[in-house]
Amino acid sequence: MTLQRLNIENFRCISQATLEFDARCNLITGANASGKTSLLEAFFFLGRGRSFRTTRRDGLVKQGTDTFTLQGDVITAGRSSPIGMRVSRERMEARYAGGRVSGLAELASVLPVQAIDPEVHRLVEDGPRERRRYLDWGVFHVEHRFVDRWRRYQKALKQRNAALRAGRPTPEIRAWETEFVEAGELVSESRQQYFELLQASVTEVAKRLLRADLELELRKGWASNRDLALALRHSEDRDRLMGATQVGPHRADVSLRVSGGPARERVSRGQQKLLAASLLLGQLRCNAELGSDVAALLVDDPAAELDAANFELLLEEIVSLPSQLFVTALDEKNPALRRLNANAMFHVEHGAVAALV
């Protein structure tokens, strides 16, 4: 998959821009706050239906306007298909190849995209939610039945939690137990199978970037010595007290250890960025090897918080991927950026985008 063209209207500080992209590498330069990240954000939104910077859609619509639009052409297996969306503060409509997109899962399958942005360290530093999202994105793109399993589980979890919050009798709480357990074990099984394949790719990349040994462990969300049904029964009193289900795949996490110790205690902020990048780059390698559609990679200001040597290491790892690349930088004259061998370059200033010859 490659994005051949993108037209942007009224997205953040960008009033209008029409860009023709290279199938391999694209470099976007400009001063801080010029709109470089907004370009990447628009591309990410087109593939995910959300931003990597905020959970609020209203902040994405250019001030003084009511709606933004994103329209592009995606090349898949040599065939070009249009993709686009129209987004207001209240609603979002997306279309692909002339038909309406039914949901975010369909959008993600059409235009798989991953991002390394200045907040990527949160994958290491924050709680389990970010790492679950990371893991599930990978599973989804190699096992398409996973989304149905995940939806089944989420529905059962939502209904059980509603009964707990309302203080309903035990039979009403247990009414969702069978579906919760069946769907939950399927979700966990899909994650575990994928995780076993993912580990090698991630640890190899981390070895090159961190020059240290990375250990990953998938914690499924309940005690490993119990099945989910038993864990759920043992947690029932606590669930009532908390008003929410305390065991299950929604409590899963990926534990990270560097050189034998917890990653958050062993690595600096710059190393956190390299560790998080290792997770993402290793995932893209793994998915490509498993036959998934190759995702585009957005890299926002890769030099931030890295010294020159680590910056070059990261660029080398990025360039070795089979992905279409979109990279932002303050100055295209930085010698390290030659590693990218970018065939298309753009400059952004005050939200105006110009192609560089």
The poorly predicted ranges are none
Total beta-strand segments: 15
Helix count from the secondary structure assignment: 12
Quote the beta fraction: 15-25%
Given the C-alpha coordinates, what overall shape results? Answer: globular
State the separation between the terminal residues, measured CA to CA. Answer: 25 Å
Percent helix, as a range, is 40-55%
The secondary structure category is alpha/beta
Average pLDDT: 94
* Corresponding CATH architecture of the domain at 1-112 and 293-357: 3-Layer(aba) Sandwich
The major sheet is characterized as: 6 strands, antiparallel
CATH class of the domain at 1-112 and 293-357: Alpha Beta
CATH superfamily of the domain at 1-112 and 293-357: P-loop containing nucleotide triphosphate hydrolases
